[in-house]
Amino acid sequence: MERSTMAALALTVSAGLALTACGGAKPAPHSGSTSHAYEPVVIGKGHTAKGGNINVLMSSDFQTLDPGNSNYVQTANVGQLYYRTLTMAKETAGRPPTVVPDLATDLGRPSADGLTWTYTLKKGLKFEDGTPITSKDIKYGVERTYARDVFTQAPQELNSALADDAYKGPYSGGDFKGIDTPDDLTVVFHLKQPFAEFPALVSRSNTAPVPRARDTRLDYTNHPVSTGPYKIASYERGRSMKLVRNPQWDPATDPNRSALPDTFTFTLSTAQATISQQLLADSDPTAITLDSNGGLQASDAAELNDPKTKARTAAGLLGCTDVLNLNTETIKDPQVRKAIALSVDRAAVQVQYGGTRFGQLTQSYINSAQRGYVEQHTDLDPAGKPKRDEAKKLLKGKQVPAKLVYGYADTNARYKNVGTVLQQNLKELGIDLQLRPIPAANYYTVLAGDQMPDIARSGWCGGADSGSVRTTIDPNLGPSLDGRTYGFSNIPRYHDPKVSGEMYKLRGTNGTSEELGKKWATLFDRAMQDYPLIPLVRNYTSSVVGSKVRNAQVGYFFGAIDLSIVGVQR
User: Fold this and answer.
1) pLDDT band at 7 (very low <50, low <70, confident <90, very high)
2) Which of 212, 267, 395, 549 has its CA 20 to 30 A from that of 198?
3) How far is residue 478's CA from residue 389's CA, in Å, rounded to a whole number?
4) Lowest pLDDT segment from 91-100, 459-468, 495-504, 519-528
5) What's the average model confidence in pLDDT over 146-172?
6) What is the pLDDT at residue 406?
7) Please, which residues have CB within 8 angstroms of residue 522's CB and are 6 or more apart in sequence?
């Protein structure tokens, strides 16, 4: 799951409000549960020695390193090393992350009406050049994310909660009214409405401080000014990057990052098949990967049973789910979309992922472990088998597209193979599906733009609060900030006047995470009757690491080795 960054957070701030259920006829229910028998596996747990290098093998460059222009889990993972935020989503293998203070002294102090949240910065915080970090740097970091004409992938969940929809970013002039900075250590956020899980929103990369004088706009990705334990020593786009220790980082202010290795080196253009071969062979005992599914190919599943390989394999079920997005602007008829969904052999798709070792079939983007979950309804077969006869009946009398395009990231053979399955499935409906490779470095930018194909795979991870349903539902199927169209991360471009309108109103409703979650889950269930997307698998990642790598855990949110705690045996 390359995508996501947002997710639900692990906090619940109570406020009273009665539940109001939403109506609507539904087909027969199926469980959305993702219960599993897998236990998380951590390699070399308890290692504390400093020193050495971690070599991170990757098949493509990061889409961006700019914390103000990032909606990607890979950037969030490596970002832990060079930037800090007000709060932080701290990973624990096999469990949703916990939100903890980072730059701030605590998780924030809400006003009685819930419309302001106040944070105090720790003393002695510095940028990599020794300049003190102040509240104004936090505010400026948030302000940059409003410049959507410049930063097209800027995270928007925090922005949608703040009380200044008219602001267009620091390059367009005007004063941002969503944040006050009464002194150098105090940050005050002004909200449109109460938001029970606000501490999780400020764990997003929006709140990474940016010094105004060092802001180079789009070029800032080449060298974001570090506030974390490491800084960028060299970066050659598409080839390599090296991180070294940041001497201005004070570990006394940061109990969350162990910062064990002296350096991290990244190779950014290694084919995934080569990555998996190198890791399985242990040709570099300090190597890991951040590629999805540990860079492993479906054909590698048997090798994971080798005892020596198994002893080097970190693993865990993630808060990450893969889906097929159906472009509702090009496939407009909900019945046609439903027919496509019913025709897909999801069991065959699971095989392309490597079988049950690599992913568990799921019926929904949300699952029963999340707060506020209500039973989801779908006509998809729980075992993943296609229902072609039902699909063909739905298409009778319909205008069926003769051709459709499936777009996939070009670095992973798995995603192309999924397309081949879809080709065979849709051929039986009389639809010619064309496969279009998209450069992985630009994949989600393409999906957000004018070249969005008719069908595209994407993934979403549960994030700082994977226990809440809202921050899965709202980004993926919710409306825009003003409620007039589809939202920023809404890849299917789904916007129903009634359902989306109710989602927009729900954003301004007060209540506990459990109460509001039930409303979000019910609206999501209604939206899914229009089949804007097809749930595929909830990811289970096995990530083979080099024999000298320690503290290797697969992050529930990151879907890869958690860089904040990893170390090397010297």
Assistant:
1) very low
2) 212
3) 32
4) 459-468
5) 90
6) 98
7) 21, 22, 374
For residues 86 and 88, what is the distance between their CA atoms, to the nearest angstrom? Answer: 7
Q: Which residues pair with 404 in a beta bridge?
A: 433
CB atoms within 10 A of CB 20: 12
CB 196 within 8 A of CB 96: no
CB-based contacts of 287: which residues, under 8 Å, 6+ apart?
54, 55, 56, 57, 278, 279, 545, 546, 549
Q: What is the pLDDT of residue 368?
A: 80
* Domains of the chain, earliest start first: 60-267 (3.40.190.10), 325-457+477-500+509-539 (3.10.105.10)
Beta bridge partners of 119: 187
Task: Compute the distance between CA of residue 495 and CA of residue 499 in angstroms, rounded to an integer.
Answer: 8
Measured CA angle at 362 (ends 357, 365), to 5 deg = 120
What are 154's two structure tokens? 């800027």
| Residue 55 near residue 403, CB atoms below 8 Å | no
Q: Is there a contact between 390 and 429 (Cβ–Cβ < 8 Å)?
A: no
Q: Which of 157-166, 448-457, 507-516 has the least mean pLDDT? A: 507-516
Residue pair 425/404 in contact (Cβ under 8 Å)? The answer is no
> What pLDDT is attached to residue 31?
35
pLDDT of residue 234: 97
- At 407 the pLDDT is 96
Question: With 80 as the cut, is the pLDDT of residue 2 above it?
Answer: no
At 21, which amino acid appears?
Answer: A
- Distances from the Cα of 9 to the Cαs of 6, 41, 96, 113, 186, in angstroms? 9, 23, 8, 21, 23
Tokens at 440, concatenated: 């992985």
Length of the chain counted residue by residue? 570
What is the C-alpha separation between 184 and 182, in angstroms, rounded? 7
pLDDT for 29 equals 39
In angstroms, the CA 528 to CA 58 distance is 35
Radius of gyration of the chain (CA): 23
* Structural tokens at position 277: 């071969």
Q: Which two tokens stand for residue 123?
A: 């003393």
β-sheet with 287-289: strand ranges across: 230-236, 240-245, 263-267, 53-57, 287-289
Strands 240-245 and 263-267: antiparallel
This prediction has a pTM of 0.74
Name the nearest CA neighbour of 139 among 103, 91, 106, 109.
Answer: 103
Q: What is the dihedral of CA 273, 274, 280, 286, to 10 degrees?
A: -140
In the structure encoding, which two tokens stand for residue 48, read together?
């504390």
Work out the number of other CB atoms within 10 angstroms of the CB of residue 390: 14
345 touches 417 (CB < 8 A): no
Instruction: Compute the half-sphere exposure of residue 391: CA atoms within 13 Å on the CB side of its CA.
Output: 25
